[in-house]
């Protein structure tokens, strides 16, 4: 496996969730992988040549059709092949861009389908001006390990929050507290909050790093993190990371959530169990 493919496998699984890109069980000496497309789309079998990314991956077939809908597998296969042909450039990894382009094409294809009647949304009380100006206590930030990758520096800060107003206040306070954060190339944020009466709030901000805030919010959903927020700061070092940057951003956020005690570090728990069994 080339280093580029190894990095891309890690990036795809970090962005879209574990198991999104895995080796095929019947791998017969080739780099054959199963790609699980986002949402309820199909899974596809992809073959990577030894010189990838100099040459594009081959889309062999559908591995699993989306939602059991008739014709959906063939449609997803055709859409992904078209997306791959559109984004591939020799020498550059392409799966992230292909998946994003596929998602756009699929949404456009679904646009003409009849939509079910929308369910009435619960009425949410809009924050009052006084609430926005409310003086919150200083945030108890937990910092992740600082990550340096190809001259870019990443660090996440995690805090518990009880309202969207508090989350916004915390972001402003963090930036005001240290000019290093104000000088960061990007300060990407996401939060998820359970409100009164069964209401919930979630939001994110890319701060110029396209799709990064949404990926952080998706990570919080996968990890089932509530009543918390994360700010991942990046200082760009002049070397483009490509889609690998999303893996680094998510890894910093994940480390912050673990250090803040919001989730259990499953890998360490497994290692402890193995040691006990010896």
From TrEMBL:
Taxonomic superkingdom: Eukaryota
Segments forming domain RWD: 7-109
GO biological process terms on file: GCN2-mediated signaling; regulation of translational initiation
Main location: cytoplasm
Cell compartments where the protein resides: Cytoplasm
A GO CC term assigned to this protein in UniProt: cytoplasm
InterPro entries per the UniProt record, alphabetical: Impact, Impact_N, Impact_N_sf, Ribosomal_Su5_D2-typ_SF, RWD_dom, UBQ-conjugating_enzyme/RWD, UPF0029_Impact_CS
Keywords: Cytoplasm, Repressor, Ribonucleoprotein, Ribosomal protein, Stress response, Translation regulation
Alphabetized SUPFAM superfamilies for the sequence: Ribosomal protein S5 domain 2-like, UBC-like
Segments of this protein annotated with the region Disordered: 105-135
Similarity field: Belongs to the IMPACT family.
Name this protein carries in UniProt: Ribosomal protein S5 domain 2-type protein
Species assigned in the record: Dactylonectria macrodidyma
């Amino acid at each position: 496996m080339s280093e580029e493919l190894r990095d891309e496998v890690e990036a795809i699984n970090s962005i879209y969730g574990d198991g999104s890109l895995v080796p095929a069980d019947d791998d017969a000496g080739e780099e054959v992988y199963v790609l699980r497309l986002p949402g309820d789309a199909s899974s596809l079998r992809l073959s990577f040549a030894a010189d990838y990314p100099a040459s594009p991956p081959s889309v062999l077939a559908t591995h699993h059709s989306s939602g059991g809908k008739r014709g959906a597998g063939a449609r997803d296969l055709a859409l992904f092949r078209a997306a791959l042909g559109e984004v591939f450039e020799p020498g550059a990894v392409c799966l992230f861009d292909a998946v994003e382009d596929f998602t756009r094409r699929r949404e456009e294809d679904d646009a003409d389908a009849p939509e079910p009647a929308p369910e009435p949304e619960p009425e949410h009380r809009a924050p009052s001006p006084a609430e926005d100006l409310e003086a919150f206590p200083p945030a108890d930030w937990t910092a992740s390990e600082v990550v340096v990758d190809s001259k870019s520096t990443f660090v996440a800060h995690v805090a518990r929050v009880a309202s969207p107003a508090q989350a916004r206040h915390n972001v402003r306070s963090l930036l005001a507290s240290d000019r290093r954060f104000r000088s960061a190339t990007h300060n990407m944020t996401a939060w998820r909050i359970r409100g009164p009466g069964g209401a919930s709030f979630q939001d994110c901000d890319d701060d110029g790093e396209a799709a990064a805030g949404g990926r952080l919010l998706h990570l919080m959903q996968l990890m089932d993190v509530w009543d918390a927020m994360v700010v991942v700061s990046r200082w760009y070092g002049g070397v483009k990371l490509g889609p690998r940057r999303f893996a680094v951003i998510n890894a910093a956020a994940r480390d912050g959530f673990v250090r803040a005690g919001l989730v259990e570090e499953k890998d360490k728990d497994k290692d402890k169990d193995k040691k006990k069994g010896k």
